[in-house]
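debug: dumping io for the single-chain case to check the tokenizer round-trip. Nothing else runs in this session.
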Amino acid sequence: MALQSTAAKPPEPQPPVSREADAIYQKGRLVARVRDPLVDLGAKEIRFAEIYRSDELLLPDECEFQQYRIVIQKVGYASRVLPGETEKGRVLKDCTADIVGYFQQ
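debug: decoded output
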């Protein structure tokens, strides 16, 4: 009589997650889009001319942009886009984010 192991199998490796270059992610979900990012590695920050479709973006929480882990520290101006506009949702302009690390897939 053969004994069956009741130990759980280790999880199978997940395929790499495809990330979009103009997107911000939190907890693996796309939560915003960006325009005109400027990465300043010397200052360890990224400046965004605009972050849009950002209704689901939680500002105090860490997020991921390209290969960077960031925290948005400054928003120059925030507004809602009116119905009929091409982009919907909250729009944040002149934003600065601190680079706190690097995203590894």
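debug: round-trip ok. The chain has a mean pLDDT of 85.
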